[in-house]
Amino acid sequence: MKFVLIAGVILVAAIIVVIMRVSALINVAKKTGDKVEMGANRTNAFLLVLFLVVSGIMTIWYSVTRFDIYDLPLASEHGAVTDNLFWITMAVTGFIFVLTHILLFAFSWMYQYKEDRRADFFPHNDRLEIAWTVVPAIVLTLLIFSGLKAWNDITAKAPADAEVVEIMGYQFAWGTRYPGMDGKLGKYNYRLIDAENAFGVDFSDANAHDDFIPREIHLPKGKPVLLKIRARDVLHSVFLPHFRVKMDAVPGMPTQFWFVPTKSTAEMRAETGNPDFNYEMACTEICGRGHFSMRMIVVVDEPAEYEKWKSEQASWLSKNPDYLSKIPEEMRELASINAGIE
Ligand SMILES: [Cu+2]
């Protein structure tokens, strides 16, 4: 089917080229070859208008049929602000884009070459130039400042009671670390990264002893969540589309993003009518050949379920007790108590 379509397009293009060749040859035969080729001129103007109509129809068709794919249901507090900003910007720039492109192609049709018509000489008009400089400047300033205000609100300091979750990107997966029951993430150091300690957690910091590393991200509904984001090798980018969260993960430069999830996974399954629905975290920075596989399931729980899940997680150290031998000797006893090792 695709092949037939491509072959059809090539065939039509070839026919147009042949028609233009033939009309040029006829002009030569009629000895009018030294004049401007009216036929080719009209064909070009027509093709430009055709391009406008066909690409316009395809864009509208695509936007309508795929609307649900890029307008995902919203599940965070600040997301309403981001969405609002997006649609206002889209409306303003979309309107101007459509208008200017209709004019662009319409003019190429209206002002195609005519033998008895001469172009006007119109070198300068102060009013016109002021208008097309000042109006876009005001509109863009309004858009940029409302964007800046939204960005400043969204990236303001996280509330003190925010749940802290560490996200680490590496080729090619996400890792996540939770602070454990003390609520404090332990320090890390890239020099400590090895085959066992993938996060480079520094266990000479007592806060690290009860940190746990689950396979899924769990978040509490209705509570602020602070993501502490880092990368182990190259640039990655944390993308949580339903929460309207996107933040680069940069090696050597930790970033963060805080937000409030507003719908649990169960509620989202009911809303979308899809019993298999899951929130996902994707990577939106091309980071190498396995980039496509950087996907992690995110579960939003009711606060009580979340606390229960958290209390059931065993610390990383208790799952890797051999690692105790790599911790400074004077720390080992405290570490095994904090980590919950018998
Ligand atoms: Cu990536």
Number of strands: 9
- Beta-strand residue percentage: 5-15%
Report the average pLDDT across residues: 89
Bound ligand species:
copper (II) ion
Order of helices and strands: HHHHHEEEEEEEHEEHHH
The Cα radius of gyration reads: 30 Å
**Ends apart, CA distance between termini:** 66 Å
Strand order in the largest sheet: 3-9-8-5-6
Anisotropy-based shape = elongated
Major beta-sheet overview = 5 strands, mixed
Spans with pLDDT under 50 lasting ≥5 residues? none
Secondary structure: helix percent: 40-55%
**Tally of separate helices:** 9
Class per helix and strand makeup: alpha+beta
Molecular structure report:
The protein has 342 residues and is of the alpha+beta class. Helices cover 44% and strands 15% of the residues. The chain has helices at 2-29, 38-65, 67-70, 79-110, 126-154, 265-272, 303-312, 316-319, 332-338, and strands at 163-170, 173-177, 217-220, 225-231, 236-240, 245-249, 255-259, 279-283, 295-301. The protein has a 5-stranded mixed beta sheet with strand order 3-9-8-5-6. A 4-stranded mixed beta sheet has the order 2-1-4-7, with no helix packed on it. Helix 2 runs antiparallel to helix 4 (79-110) and helix 4 (79-110) runs antiparallel to helix 5. The mean pLDDT is 89. Bound molecules: copper (II) ion (CU). Residues 236, 283, 285, 287, 291, 294 line the site of copper (II) ion.
Descriptors for this entry?
342 residues, 5-stranded mixed beta sheet, binds copper (II) ion, 9 helices, alpha+beta
List the helices and strands and how they pair.
Elements: H1 2-29, H2 38-65, H3 67-70, H4 79-110, H5 126-154, E1 163-170, E2 173-177, E3 217-220, E4 225-231, E5 236-240, E6 245-249, E7 255-259, H6 265-272, E8 279-283, E9 295-301, H7 303-312, H8 316-319, H9 332-338
Helix pairs in contact: 2-4, 4-5
Bound molecules: copper (II) ion.
